[in-house]
Amino acid sequence: MFEDLDVSRNYFEELPPEGWSFEGAPRLDPFDAAFINQALDSTKASDCITVIEQAERQQAFWSSVQARAAARIDSLTGCTPEDHPVDQERGTAHMVAIARRRSQSGSIAYLHCMRNLIPDMPYLFSRFEAGDLSESLVLAIMGPLDDLPSDERRIFDRMYAHAPSLFDSMSTKAARDFAQKYVDTNHSEEQTLRMEKKARDRFVHIRPGKDCMLVNARLPIEVGLALKNDLESKAMAAKSAGDQRTLEQLRADALVGTATGAPLDRPLPVKLHINLVMTDKSLLLGENQLAGITGYGSIPAEYARRLAIAWQAAGPDSPEEVLDLFRRRVVALPMLRRLFLEPNGQDLVAMDSKERLFKGQLRQMILLRDPFCRTPHCNNTPSHVDHVMQHAKGGQTDYSNASGRCPACNLAKETPGWEEEVVSEAPHKIRIRPTSGVEYASTSPTLVGLVRLEQLIGGDGPFIPPVPVKKPPGRRKTASK
Fold this sequence. Notes:
The chain is α+β, with helices and mostly antiparallel strands. It is built from 17 helices and 13 strands. The protein has helices at residues 30-40, 45-76, 86-99, 107-120, 122-129, 135-145, 150-162, 172-186, 188-200, 221-240, 247-260, 280-284, 301-310, 320-326, 360-369, 407-412, 453-457; strands at 203-209, 212-218, 268-272, 276-277, 291-293, 297-299, 330-332, 384-387, 402-405, 419-426, 429-433, 440-443, 467-468. β1 and β2 form a beta hairpin. α2 crosses α4. The chain is globular, with a radius of gyration of 26 Å.
């Protein structure tokens, strides 16, 4: 039946095929049909990439039309951002979900988002409507903003309007983290209280599944990351030693061993080396500059200060909040390490290595800079640190010529014809060319603050110019007074 199919044939007709009568059937106008057929007949991969990109923009546009229609249905039922009865809202959300052929799970959150998006975020919605942002990216941005007052969402929208390239290469995970940073900056105390409430409400649920038992838990951020890192390190060590089990199996077995191998009243055998990043002003002077934990994202400065203070030895006369943290049964071995920033005050300075592999503090510093995989739109957490320009091609093993990638993306960039190069050191920016004629950019997020100053200034050039890529002959010298 399909023996004669050929991807280069003209499958896209200018008119609907004979016998089609359904007026709602998708169809292409003559220009689009000709453009797609020409690209599919081309010998250049870049032409097909263009078709994929344009199709994605069209998909985003039609998703914005759905958003307008959903908001209109919501208003026709009498719901407003201030007054939306639960019963009416649920019915509208399910009606919209059925029309969109989506699961009812998350349907109310979608309706909330569209109810706030169109009136409060005109610039964000205009980029959505223009096809610049996908629906999933818009939902990721709006999620943390949902509980904010309307005027604060408008302030966020104006900030984005002054930094239009902000979300261009972000993954949904990175975009959500950015929006959460904004919320944490303006509502640090409320966010700290919510996080502490989650810690108090920690639980473990073990229930029967189909042919198995399912384990679900809610843990405080630092405890969950400590457990995750411990399971990961044990699994990787066993795998390196030749264990034939998969990493998933090893992590599961390590979890069982951790849970059953230590008495309940003794600390778990976990050395907590989480990377808590905060400025000295936030730690010592009480300033409200955001902190962050590698592997989780941003946290309020107040929560970070309490976390740092609580990791002291807990004695019988310690405050209750310190004892509560200690009862979480994690031994923490904190270490303060100074990290220096470039003149823009938002990006880390470089470190060099004479080795071929990225190890030790250099590797840790790169992962601090790259909390998300550097491939545009990838949601994975980086576990590989590798050269931007391959070592075999003369690339240096230094801070500038490095990027954090997930395993799949690190392998993908070794594809023949795939090229990458570093454009600037601070901010660290990579130019990615998967094939001839196709180019993307990847910029590391700020370590301090929300948006880089040069993104907000605009004009003919950045207010603070990026630090160019350079190879100093020796070690950097400190300026003498």
